[in-house]
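quick one, 289 residues, struct below
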Amino acid sequence: MTAVAILGPGGVGGLLAVRLGQAGHEVTLIGRHPDRVTAAGLTLTAPGEDPITTTPASRPYLTQPVDVLIVAVKATQLVDATARVPAALLAGATVVPFLNGVDHVPYLRAFYPGDTVAATIVVEATKLADGTIEQVFPSARVTVATPPGSPAAAAAAKLFDVPGLQVATSPGEAQVLWQKLTFLATYALLTTAAGQPIGPAREQFAEWISPLIREACAAAEVQGARIDPAAVEAQIRGLPGEGRSSMLKDRLAGHELELDAIAGPTLRTLGPSEAPVTLRAVQTILGAG
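---
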C-alpha cells in the first residue's frame, strides 16, 4: 500500500483518488472544501461500470508525510495550490504532476525536494455539482516518463497500473509531455475559439486544424520531441463530435483559462511569426472573452 496525496480534487484528481483507493492505496485529497468529500465519500461514474464510491481522507492542507504527491490542479492554480503541501513533508517522496503544458515540471522540481516524474493523463472527467466525478468516455490513458536509472519513475508507472487506467511508459520526458500537448493545443484552441464541442468546431475552423498541429509539432521538435503530425490529426478528426476540452468547459463556466499553459509553449518556442495560426486562435479566444 502506498500513501498518496492528491492536490486538486477536481475531475482528474477525483478520478485518480477513486481508482487508487479502489486498488487499496491510502489516499488523501488536498483541496479547499474537504468537508464535502469527508461527509459523502467520493463517487466515480464511468461508461460500462457501476458507480464506485471510496472514502479518501480529505484535508485543506497536507499535515503528514506521504510516499507520492499527485498534482492535479489547473496550471493557473499551481502556485497558490502548492502552499497547501509543505515541501518539508515531501523529503523522499515522489511528485507526479498531471497538468496541461510543460512548464510546471521545472517549477515543481524547484519547489519540492524529491523526484518529480513527468506524466500525462488523457481522459474527459468532470466534477459535477453534487461532487460526483463523471468520466465521460471509457478511456483513461496515463503515460509516465521513465528515463533509464529512475526507480521513482518506474514505481510511479507501477502505481497507476490499476483497473480503469491504461498505463504506458516512454523514456523521453519531452516526448511524453509534448505528445499530449500537440493534441491538446489543437483540441482546446479549436473548441474554445468556436465556443462549441469538437464536431462543430472542426467545421467552423477546418482550415486551422492542420496548421495548428504542424506548429505545435514544430515546437515539440525544437524541444527534443518528435511527434507525427499525421497521427495527431487522425486523433483530432477521430474524436467524438460531442467532445469538449477542459478549456472550453472553463470558458463556459466563466473560469480562468489555461491559455498560457496550452498555447504558450508553442508561441514561446517558435515565436509568433512562426506560429501564426496558434496566435490567431489565441487572439480569437481573447477577443471572445
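The first helix runs from residue 11 to 22.
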